[in-house]
Amino acid sequence: MTNYSYTLLIPLIPLTIFLLTGLSGHRFKPIYSGLAGTMGLTMAAFLSYITAIRYFFIDGPVNGMYPQIKAISTVWLRFTDTLHIDMGILIDPISVMMLVVVTTVSLMAHIYSLGYMKGERGFARFYSFLSLFSFSMLGLVLATNIFQMYIFWELVGVSSFLLIGFYYEKPSAVAASKKAFIVTRFADLGFLIGILMLSFTTDTFDFISLTSSTGPAIASSAGTAFMGLSVISWALILIFIGGAGKSAMFPLHIWLPDAMEGPTPVSALIHAATMVVAGVYLVARLFPAYALTAPDALHVVAWVGGFSSLFAAVIALTQIDIKRVLAFSTMSQIGYMMMALGVSGYGDHEGLGYMASMFHLFTHAMFKALLFLGAGSIIHAVHSNNMTDMGGLRKYLPITHITFLIACLTIAGIPPLSGFWSKDEILAAALHHNPVLFAIGFGVAGLTAFYMFRLYYNIFWGHDRHYHHTPHESPLVMTIPLMFLALAAIFSGFLPFSHMVTSDLKPFEAHTDLAVAIPSVLIALAGIGVATVMYRKPNTLPDRLASSIKVLYTASLRKFWIDEIYQFVTKKILFAGVSRPIAWFDRHVIDATMNLVGWVVVTTSSKIKGFQSGQVQQYAAVFISSVILLVLVFVYLFSN
Amino acid sequence: MMTQGIPLYYFLIISTLMFFIGVFGFLTRRNLITMLMSIELVLNSVNINFVAFNSYLVPHRMQGQFFSLIVIAVAAAEAAVAIAIIINIYRNFRSIETDKVNEMKY
Prior knowledge:
The complex is a heterodimer of chains A (about 650) and B (about 110).
Chain A: H1 9-24, H2 30-59, E1 69-78, E2 84-91, H3 93-116, H4 123-142, H5 146-164, H6 171-202, H7 207-211, H8 216-219, E3 225-226, E4 229-230, H9 231-246, H10 255-258, H11 264-273, H12 278-285, H13 287-293, H14 295-316, H15 322-342, H16 352-382, H17 398-412, H18 418-433, H19 435-460, H20 476-491, H21 514-535, H22 541-548, H23 550-557, H24 562-608, H25 616-638
Antiparallel strand pairs in A: 1-2, 3-4
Helix pairs in contact in A: 1-2, 1-4, 2-3, 2-4, 3-4, 3-11, 3-16, 3-20, 4-5, 5-6, 6-9, 9-12, 9-14, 11-15, 11-16, 13-14, 14-15, 14-19, 15-16, 15-18, 15-19, 16-17, 16-18, 16-20, 17-19, 17-20, 18-19, 18-21, 19-21
Chain B: H1 8-28, H2 32-57, H3 63-93
Helix pairs in contact in B: 1-2, 2-3
């Protein structure tokens, strides 16, 4: 078996860069921090590609099965002989795949930011945070056990907080970063409780033993029941809540649109391609446990994913801010991945959904990063996020236009681009499992095509707006990542994923199901067609349509008032009903007790402070008379 | 011995008298030098006790006498320190009356 211990360098290089640029970046020209970060990520990406090539193509499956290798493992915190927290590196198909995804997208974001962030204040800080994020995400991906994953999970949360709040002078950015942090932390509470329950019942944190089909998780699945579900099911549902928070699943999605306050490369890196798929990765990581012991938990995953994808797609139809459209499209696509995991079975062709989910994760990372970086290039040119300020940009931004068009076609699922292949597998898996979920996925495919082309036409077609200066194409350092990602978006669909990433680690043959592929392409074309009619040339059709279904339009524009509901619940119910009484109790009972103690001490001491008169002889008199008194007492006590 | 004819309680009476005269002087006199002298009286009354008990209880040993020698040495040292303090007090307050030196209070 090949030695993979060098993979330790993959997370360590970004960590070193983070420490270097974070501690001493201000002493050098900012550009050096940027170059250092980019160089480090290049090395990490290079090592990841080597690992992937070795793992999938040179070593390949052993006895028809991909091995799960612990490249490095040390005991970090020992509770009992069997229960201990390790730190290590796990090499298996999904972690290797995620290595490639994370380092590729991160590298592209690094290169792109050299141009996009040029001249910004805090350039060095930006790069050190990017490196911190890359380190945390790589650590999360490579974790050998669920607790190590949790640690890096929180680190990812912190770096996301730092990057969303990068423009900390902007109140909206500060609010967005706090919102993201609090919402995901709230979800992580579920994750932590889930970890504790899971490790309590199975006596292990280790992924390999948790997910092996003969391991303790499977053996203890018939344990005690609560509300009709086994403990394992509850634990896995709670863990899924953590994943849902990070992956912005309904109803914990409210932070994702606001997170677009961060710089655009950050949106591309974190809020599209890598961090938000951490939830999907978590479920995929524990997938055998879900599939074999807790089918109920898997149903929850499927329905939450399906609902979120539909919900987000409907909201994306009406948003004006181009980054928010992309944010909701991300939520929708991640819902797709969750749904695919939820409808998947275990083993061979049953595990099609699992494979499709990972496949879609891979292709989505490429084309969504491309979309966000393209959006960044547009924003760079126009200095606005709103599509109402854009139009006719195809003349000015040719490279961005072509790459953005490729990304839109990819996400719409037009063959032979990569989105088509992965989406097709998801729909096939859904059809196989549950027709209702298939219908949702099918509808979402049409909606996706429509809103992406609404975005595309509004930006690149239609009238020119009054630009302050003529928009110009971004520099090469920004367009090269766009072109690279466009190539990845076109060709990554041809990777033989069913031979590489499967639920039971055994390769199988997956075929394109024409009965699914043809309708899904047709509905995508229909969505594009409707968008073309409505938005290619300026006309009154969209406005008339909006006013004819005003209620629906407003609901979608206002994101179904979910934010307002959260405000209502927190302000009116939690603050008024719980926090106020607690504050009252704190002020009038706890504080009052302390104040009483203080008051007693102050009053008594002011009464008796006259004793300390400063007159030495008075002290001596008290002292001597007390001694005499004591002597008398002792004489009385001991004389009989 | 010279003390052979004198009973022990004579010594005790004189030392008790000296002790309380010392205490009385310490508590009533306002002058720091006089207070120091009163302390010497107290110490010397103790010395008398040591010596008297020594020669009545264990005449062939000398502990009591040496102890009183130590007390005398300590008293000398204490007088040196006390007088230094008193001089400093005088420099600061232009007085050595204790009721005028009462800044160390609440």
